[in-house]
């Protein structure tokens, strides 16, 4: 059979699937699993559908760096396991394709490069902790999602979504709008139905921001709830891995699969494991989840809430009303305790991250089985040498250069770290505890306070501006509050059902 005929038959089968009561586009994990059980769909069908969509859409949106050449084989294996009723086939993610951000290691034929040619053909020692858990759950690693190069920690001049390997990612709703943060490909790929679900990473805003900007759901977990082992690092104090999906339900399925202890990220995953609820997170997807919740709103303090921006407040007025109508108590016009005292402390984040990045990246590079570069200094030299080839001269590596100047955690860095800890406890934690809040509600993608303190947040699609650009609403809470945040986010999503797919011309 010729390749052309095979492709024609594939497209006809996809059209048949799409023409029945089940539609792949926008399908949730539970809907896909039901279609599997009813023999309306196979994992192979699903993977081939997404590969076809990527071939068509990725040249426009630049959301995917690589496709796993073994994805179809993995899908066939999943179909066989399902047919044999293997124990693994009962897992929620079994047979579900997932893209992982290109800073998350996979021990397979895929590269792990953070979007940089400097790491092309490097060999990782093992799967990242979260990838290992995904494989154990039966998920199919479909490929690597694009990102802002080096998780947006290389150049302060480079736009969100740009990397040397895939070039500029494009917001599928309004092409001129910033796709935001570093997990751009993870957000865009699920928004455009090039994959069922994806994984992103966040150091400060890089899950929540692209989720808001591309109309998807993003969960930034409590620090250590998901393993960072095998993730190209910025800061072990702030880095986290989380799901980016079209619905809260799908995000929770992925979260359930990837949380838990990992010996390769022992200290933080052991510490955070106490937060995982018995029986997992799916039970918190329940109707009436907003009832009785105390939600805080800050208006007058930039970086903690809505500020005094009338346009932003007008966008969210109807959402405040919906939250109240569904049983939530809104504690409005909150004051941030010690605001003038703690805000200067946030300035220490850059000092801390520079030093932490150099230490962490050098350790990651040294552990690689093979690599063209073994240190931050090597990466800087590579970028200088190949600046014209990669067009890197357009985006100077100033963040790298500042990090390379650091020499461990000295007195300056220790003071910055003390200030960040103090700011978290005297600011966000005190605000939450004194007002007995279940969550702080913020527009778009939350507050830097969530990042520096290792607190969780969930961004849910909230609407579209007059130009059609998406924006989200973020619910942030204290460490380990994911069950409550899921109830709130799910309650809001079900009450509003705002999200719509981008208009894509066939």
Automatic annotation (TrEMBL):
Signal peptide (UniProt feature, chain positions)? 1-19
Top-level division of the source organism's lineage: Eukaryota
Q: Where are the transmembrane segments?
A: none
Checking Pfam families in the record gives: Amidase (PF01425)
> Is Signal one of the keywords?
yes
Q: Which UniProt keywords apply?
A: Signal
The record's SUPFAM superfamilies line, in alphabetical order, gives:
Amidase signature (AS) enzymes
Q: Where is the Amidase domain?
A: 45-453
PANTHER family per the record? Answer: AMIDASE, OS04G0183300 PROTEIN
Q: What is this protein called?
A: Amidase domain-containing protein
What organism is recorded for this protein? Lactuca sativa
């Amino acid at each position: 059979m010729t390749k052309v005929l095979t492709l024609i038959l594939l497209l006809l089968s996809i059209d048949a699937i799409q023409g029945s009561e089940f539609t792949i586009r926008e399908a949730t994990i539970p809907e896909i699993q039901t279609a599997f059980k009813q023999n309306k769909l196979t994992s192979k069908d699903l993977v081939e559908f997404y590969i076809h969509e990527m071939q068509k859409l990725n040249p426009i949106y630049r959301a995917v760096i690589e496709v796993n050449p073994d994805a179809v084989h993995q899908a066939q294996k999943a179909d066989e396991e399902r047919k044999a009723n293997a124990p693994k086939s009962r897992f929620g993610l079994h047979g579900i394709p997932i893209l992982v951000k290109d800073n998350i290691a996979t021990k397979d034929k895929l590269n792990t490069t953070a979007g940089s040619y400097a790491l092309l053909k490097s060999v990782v020692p093992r799967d990242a902790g979260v990838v290992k858990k995904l494989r154990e759950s039966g998920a199919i690693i479909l490929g690597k999602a694009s990102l802002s190069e080096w998780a947006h920690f290389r150049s302060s001049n480079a736009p969100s979504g740009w990397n040397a390997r895939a070039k500029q990612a494009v917001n599928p709703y309004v092409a001129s709008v910033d796709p935001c943060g570093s997990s751009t490909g993870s957000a865009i790929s699920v928004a455009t139905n090039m994959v069922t679900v994806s994984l992103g990473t966040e150091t400060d805003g890089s899950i929540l921001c692209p989720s808001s900007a591309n109309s998807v759901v993003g969960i930034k977990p409590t620090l250590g709830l998901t393993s960072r082992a095998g993730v190209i690092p910025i800061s072990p104090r702030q880095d986290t891995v989380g799901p980016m999906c079209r619905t809260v339900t799908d995000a929770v399925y992925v979260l359930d699969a990837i949380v838990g202890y990992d010996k390769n990220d022992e200290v933080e995953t052991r510490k955070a494991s106490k937060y995982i609820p018995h029986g997992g997170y799916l039970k918190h997807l329940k109707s009436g989840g907003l009832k009785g919740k105390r939600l805080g709103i800050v208006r007058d303090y930039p970086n903690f809430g809505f500020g005094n921006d009338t346009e932003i407040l007008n966008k969210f007025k109807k959402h405040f009303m919906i939250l109240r109508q569904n049983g939530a108590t809104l504690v409005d016009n909150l004051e941030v305790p010690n605001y003038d005292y703690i805000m200067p402390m946030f300035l220490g984040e850059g000092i801390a991250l520079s030093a932490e990045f150099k230490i962490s990246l050098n350790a990651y590079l040294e552990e690689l089985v093979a690599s063209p570069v073994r240190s931050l200094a090597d990466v800087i030299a590579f970028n200088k040498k190949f600046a014209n080839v990669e067009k890197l001269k357009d985006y100077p590596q100033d963040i790298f250069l500042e990090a390379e100047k650091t020499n461990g955690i000295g007195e300056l860095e220790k003071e910055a770290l003390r200030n960040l800890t103090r700011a978290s406890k005297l600011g966000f934690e005190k605000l939450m505890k004194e007002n007995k809040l279940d969550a702080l509600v913020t527009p778009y993608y939350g507050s830097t306070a969530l990042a520096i303190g290792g607190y969780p947040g969930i961004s849910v699609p909230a609407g579209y501006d007059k130009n059609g650009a998406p924006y989200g609403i973020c619910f942030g809470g204290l460490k380990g509050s994911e069950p409550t945040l899921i109830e709130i986010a799910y309650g809001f999503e079900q009450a509003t059902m705002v999200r719509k797919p981008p208009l894509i011309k066939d």
